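[[Sequence with tokens]]
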Amino acid sequence: MPGAKGGGRRALGLVAAALTVTGAALLGGGALLSGATPPVPSPDSARAQPPVTARPVLLRSEPRRLDVPRIGVRVRLSRLGLNADGTVQVPPVDRPEQAGWYARGYTPGERGAAVILGHVDGGGRKGVFYELGRLRPGDAISVTRADGSVAAFTVQSVEQVAKRRFPAQRVYGPLDHAGLRLVTCGGGFDRGSGHYTDNIIVYARLK
């Protein structure tokens, strides 16, 4: 989703549908989101963060599994990096059941915004984030980490936004607490471009 060369990030979309999925989209597969968002600071440069809140956070540890009970998601997480053009990688479109963590960012439970990307359709099949838009404030999300700990999050908000206005700073930028973002596509499916028009973004906070 976002990465500009030289430490920033640009947005890249996912093959997915969240709130509204057309039959044509599922039959035809979906396509990568086009467009970019303004660059935001890299995790390293973002260590000069806002004042720290009193709420505890966890030490850095890579995520291994994502659980979202409300929508029946229980999935192992792959690592995502940057493409050659500086955009963020997404899971393979022919494996829509996969989800991936953006490994150049924060880990879930660490102070900052950890980002997990997933598809909703691909290859004529529903994907891992097919029902992401059903999440509501107060819903539980948990991430099992490499050190054996579980980072438990509570959904704060769910946003649908046009891809041309992707909120890169809010998704990837530094925080004064441990946050989590789940990102996929939503809105209508444009047959001409092969893209969904919007993104669905879930914002959650460590309990």
